[in-house]
Amino acid sequence: MAVRACGLIIYRRLQSAPSSKVADGIEYLLLQTSYGTHHWTPPQGHVDPGEDDLQTAFRETQEEAGLQASQLTLIEGYKKELHYPVRGKPKTVIYWLAEVKDCNTAVKLSEEHQAFRWLKLEDACKFAEYEDMQATL
């Protein structure tokens, strides 16, 4: 049976950004795992029994990054599904897009992650490494 996980791609708008280039003022949150290859990923995790996908995404974001649902604005119409093998088993990860309401909100990592970074899109794609995650960003 396929493993199912859900998460949020979180971004913030920097207040000091010039209005001429909106993309210059946007940064994406990536977390570095404290296990395995120490890869970088948005907050995400496995769906618990009785939980719907979006509940999982918000719960995992709170657990892994310390960000509450009330601190985020979910962007309507954005939902991406990734499919890839993990240890020989198929995995599905569903991501929604969310903006942090206050760009100065603190990130509080769980033990699952050893570092986090707010990155411009180009840098986030470099850190993400996997092509499907780069395309999703």
UniProtKB/TrEMBL annotation:
Coiled coil: none annotated. Its cofactor is a divalent metal cation. Residues 1-137 form the Nudix hydrolase domain. SUPFAM superfamilies: Nudix. Its EC number is 3.6.1.17. It catalyses: a 5'-end FAD-phospho-ribonucleoside in mRNA + H2O = a 5'-end phospho-adenosine-phospho-ribonucleoside in mRNA + FMN + 2 H(+); P(1),P(4)-bis(5'-guanosyl) tetraphosphate + H2O = GMP + GTP + 2 H(+); a 5'-end CoA-ribonucleoside in mRNA + H2O = a 5'-end phospho-adenosine-phospho-ribonucleoside in mRNA + (R)-4'-phosphopantetheine + 2 H(+). One of its GO terms (molecular function) is nucleotide binding. Pfam families: NUDIX. Keywords: Hydrolase, Nucleotide-binding. It is an enzyme of class 3 (hydrolase). CDD domains: NUDIX_Ap4A_Nudt2. One of its GO terms (biological process) is ATP biosynthetic process. It comes from the Eukaryota. Belongs to the Nudix hydrolase family. Catalyzes the asymmetric hydrolysis of diadenosine 5',5'''-P1,P4-tetraphosphate (Ap4A) to yield AMP and ATP. Exhibits decapping activity towards FAD-capped RNAs and dpCoA-capped RNAs in vitro. This is Bis(5'-nucleosyl)-tetraphosphatase [asymmetrical].
